[in-house]
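so the lab meeting is tmrw and i was supposed to have these ready like two days ago... anyway. pasting both below. for each one the top line is the aa sequence and the line under it is the structure tokens. i havent really looked at them closely yet so no promises
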Amino acid sequence: MTYTSLNFIFFVLATALVYFVLPFKKYRWTVLLAASIFFYCTWSYQLGAFMLFTTLSTYLIALWLNRVSVKSKAVLKEHKSEWSRDDKKKYKNKTKVRMRLVMTLALLLNFGILAFLKYYNFFAGSLNDILGAFSLDFSAPSLKLILPLGISFYTFQSMGYIVDVYREKTAPQKNPLKLLLFVSFFPQIIQGPISIYDQLAVQLFEGHDFDFTRFKHGCELIMWGFFKKLVIADRAVIAITAVTADYNKFGGTTLTFTVLLYALQLYADFSGGIDISRGVAQIFGVDMIDNFKRPYFSRSINEYWRRWHISLGAWLKNYLFYPVAMSNAFITASKKMKGTRFGKTAAGAHISKVLPTSVASLIVFLVVGIWHGASWKYVAFGAWNGMIIMVSILLEPLFISAKDKLHIKDTNIPFMLFQMFRTFLIVLVGYVFDVAPSFSQAMRTFWLFFTNQNFKLGYSQISDLGLGKKDYLVVLIGGLIIFIASIIQERAKNGMDIRHMLDQKPFILRFALLFVALISIVVFGIYGSGYSAADFVYAQF
């Protein structure tokens, strides 16, 4: 039951009916839990065992962490008058070490399952290649492994909860069924967003009354997601799949076109799926984080990643970037550099100051690359983004000095457009690693960009990718609609979204726009008998 199927629409409406009809508001969360379990079972009830294990282990270890913390505070209170400050400090450190070990157990168990299922064959294949190069007689077996639906999303979300309990920012959930709902909430299980417990849980567990405005806004957001997915993404992916299926036969012009088309297809697919998720949740009175904020308007690659997949970026910042950047090893290295002859120069002082931040950023983006897929091309994808951000942090004083000498202001419109274009090119370089079947093919693609541009051949190849001129026109117009909507949203006062803007327009105009949108999905959407809808890009993450 995919998000874009009629079955899913009927399922959401039926769930909403039961949810709002149930007279006991404080038990309405059980309807969401039952719906989430049913939804997951329509994909694979056997693989649901992995999610149940994550929920159970997270539940028990969170309670364990809380017991250790409560006991520690009781002991400190009991010995408050007789222990010295050093005694208290030693006991606190001992408790912290114990809690860290308990937290580490949860991380190893759950990230270990994710790593094994997602990366075992990748590492086994890489090991076999290395051993084969040295003519060693050993071969790690290849296993037939299947990724449970949304395993990365519910694992990251659960482990974020564990870390927050460890940090005592969040009280542990005493009801295992409520925790299961937080882990399995069906609108976000396919591709996120990755939610923080304190932001989502209270909304899930409190009963919501039916609100027509929220229902209307939710349906409008779902319709917008359907337009992106069915009209644009599922149409564009036909041509992209045709290229990746026989990658070697295409020249530089066709590959350039494919990467540009992929930039639109990926955004329409991923943001469209998130729109559907957020729209469905809003019907039930639940506001989930907005995962995209017009990322292609970004003026730097750092800003791009703050606008793209926002929930993943926030998770990595809170649970990986800060712990790494603020670790004793990184701070000590920074201090040592400051004490050197180079560290006392202007350039050295800046580098020593930002060294923890820049290196931590590189580590984070290597993780981002590996998270995207079990392949060396994704490692390269992460390294490319991480190196760009690292270099931009290290060379920031030079950039500022160059702007001052050239008398360029950040508010200069031509300069802003240049920054957006430059950032988009950097993003496209990363997309090459997504499109190409392998790292070596990605390197070949870069070479062909500069050595094999043949527009006549490219036009012929592009015309033979399974899409006609009308299809390309639909994709182009759809892309322009997204672009115009993004400009309106970017320039909106006080961050008001388009749905609230529409509320202020006359009824006839609102009705006409929604009617045209619905007809566009029905007429131009890619679906129907004999067609297998493309999975969302991040569905198996």
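ok protien two:
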Amino acid sequence: MRFTKLKAAAVLGAALLAGCGGGGGSDTPAVSSPVGAAPGTGPGTTPGSGGTPGTGGTPGTDTVPGAPPAATPGGTWLALTPATVTLSAIEGESTGFRVIGTSSRTFEKPVNMAIIDSKGVVTTDVTISALSQFEYAADLRTAPALAAGSHTTNLEVRLCEDVPTVCSKPLPGSPWYIPVTVNVAPHAQAQQRLTLMPAAFDLATYQGEPLSFELVAQMAGASKPVQIAVVDNAGVLAQGTVMSQDGSTTYRAKLTTSSVLTPGEHSASLEVRACYDEPRECRMPVSGSPWRVPTKVTVKSGINLTALAALPGVAPWSTYNGNATHTGYVPASFDPANFTRRWNRPETGTGFGQAVAIDQGRVFTVAGLSESKWELIAAKEADGEVAWRYHMSRLYNVNPPAAANGKVFVTSTGHEDSFLWVFDQATGQLISKTALSSQWDRYMAPTVVGDMVYTNSGSYGGMVKFNAATNLVEWRNTTLPQYDGWTPAVDGGYAYAYMNSQVYAVDTASGGIAFTIANPSGQWMGWSTSTLALDDKMGFVVHNGRLLGFDLQARTRAWETNGSTIGQPIVAKGVVYSLAEGGSLVEARASTNGMLQWKSPALSNGTVEAAFMRMVVSSNLLFASSATTTVAIDLATHQVVWTYPLGGELAISDRGVLYIVARSGKLAAVNLR
């Protein structure tokens, strides 16, 4: 039978490479295959004689150490790539390499093949793949038992019409030789192929407050795909984890300390396993594995009920970002060395945590208990105990509370659920419930100025002014557009809002729009907006990644920044602070012209993710919060000087307590003095 060129070339390639491999120390063809047979189904493995018998054969032993015998004439129709192989390996591991065979002629008779390694440098672990109709690749591996040092061999490729261990009828040009050199590094050097960042952990948290942190591994020199896991046998972690691969050589693990650690110091040597199989069993470890990461977790007492007293010159935290101008500023200085956790409250219901209001020694918060069920809770600052709670029944949505003048103000939103609720701070008794006309919106807390309460709500947008002394609506503005996520900022006779790429100034006496200020570079970004922060006749807001400064007297946009700013800006003493570069660091700018004053280092320190969203600022510290972590930044040095293992909404009371409300509804109170 005569093969066509296409078919013959393909079969020849399969026969050539299907049996690649190495012997066990003698001249042994790994596999012999006839043309037309599946790989590995030919005559099989038989002892060889170290050479190729028959005409055209050449001795299998080296005539010059490390060099192949002379090539047989007539063999140019078969090309082997690479012509020579040089590899690096680690003692105890197998390293892969590839040989490609390309044929330019065909044969009428069946052809058998063998590849012989007289020194046991390669294994019989081979994978065959077709690259094209005329090319096949063999993926081979070095022997894992090779000792440290340099090893050389010449792979002998035989193509024969008879059994290749005899090869009395070799094909023209057979055999071919591939010199192979394997440089094997000692096992101890394998430890250097994995770099762990950080190399050790020294962590601090509070009892019952699990701390999340990150371990990064850089892997180099693995001979095939690797899985890496972190194992803790000391009970310091909540559980071990398999590291996720972030790029070809980078692996990351999000770790969490155990929630049942008692006060004191807890030490562990975290085991980092790198394996070629499932790392929990790790029957095929990477040479050098495992690695160790020394870890110390200091757990502080969870309850410190120190005496509380009002801070001179500090007003109650009455609404969103503290006050009617939403500056987020508390005029007091605090020493991080004195910070202790006062108390904490666990998750509530569905875990729908919102910002708090604080007044007269009580913390007011709204909790979602289950679907469409809500309650307003008043907790004592002194010890966190619940003073009262009010079940608000089934409502579409309840927004964060405001508190002032002995009352608590809450809005609910939804077509039939739209109301302004007023409660007595001391008893939780419902004082009034006034119908509003919002749709399915979500807003920030109402803004309180004296007895006047300003909030969002009109038919498809708008603003309302409510008199808390008379429990009557003073006016309703129904001309403002309808946007989510804001509350009025009130100062100097105007209530301000930013939406539809412009500032609206509403006259607080009449409720009419007094003027607008356009943002020339504004783009529509959906039906959500941000709240303006006001300071010294300037207004600040983040829009489309840019921090904007509006001159409210000149009624113009004064400046803007480029970049990827997120979150809500805050302002104090002529400086506006924003979360720049996607929330990874803080920038401080002059409020009048936006000139950069300073920027912090990256807030992520290996224990937190980069996206920080909320801030408050005191006279000497700025507090920034991500989803899992809160940090304090020294305004003089711009460095992080304190870290707490909970993130979320932030507030500072007039008694010097920092409150952190997680998305889960967990509430932590931290003594700042």
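from a quick look at the 2nd one: The first strand starts at residue 28 and ends at 29. Helices lie at 5-18. will dig more after coffe
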